[in-house]
Design goal:
Length: about 140
């Protein structure tokens, strides 16, 4: 088993490894559904997935369907250096999307030149399957 540094330097793209906290998130995206946790007591939406509500500390929650719509909150354009697996993608964007549900989601906007990304730009989620288990969420302009 290669150590972390060796794995990071390969050309293989890092693949999300679902944990107890986010396995339901990845099960949903594999079905073509974007779902976020929502507190059953104070109704606060949250993302990233975690076992306890950051507002009221309740452990009770459900996985609710997102509209998939949001707006660019902030972004960066990566020109390098980066991991070898992403070198051919340079330059690429990394965006923080403020979803309609009020949670922030970090991802990428596809098919959008860097100089066309603007604050408050509307985007919608698209599902990008990596394999049978993992489907990534990226964004496109509607
Ligand atoms: Zn709560």
């Amino acid at each position: 088993m290669p150590d972390l540094r060796e794995r990071a330097l390969t050309r293989d793209r890092p693949r999300p490894q679902p944990t107890l906290d986010d396995v339901e998130f990845f099960e949903a995206t594999a079905r073509g559904e974007l779902r976020f946790q929502r507190c059953s007591d104070c109704q606060t939406w949250r993302h990233y997935p975690r076992p306890v509500c950051p507002e009221c500390q309740s452990p009770r929650f459900s996985w609710e369907l997102s509209s998939g719509r949001g707006r660019i909150y902030t972004w960066s354009v990566v020109h390098g250096p980066t991991l070898p697996a992403f070198r051919d993608d340079l330059p690429y964007n990394v965006v923080d999307v403020l979803m309609e549900e009020g949670v922030h989601f970090q991802s990428q906007v596809l098919d959008c030149p860097a100089d066309e990304i603007t604050a408050d730009m509307q985007v919608e989620a698209v599902f990008v399957p990596l394999d049978e288990e993992i489907t990534l969420i990226k964004f496109r302009r509607p």
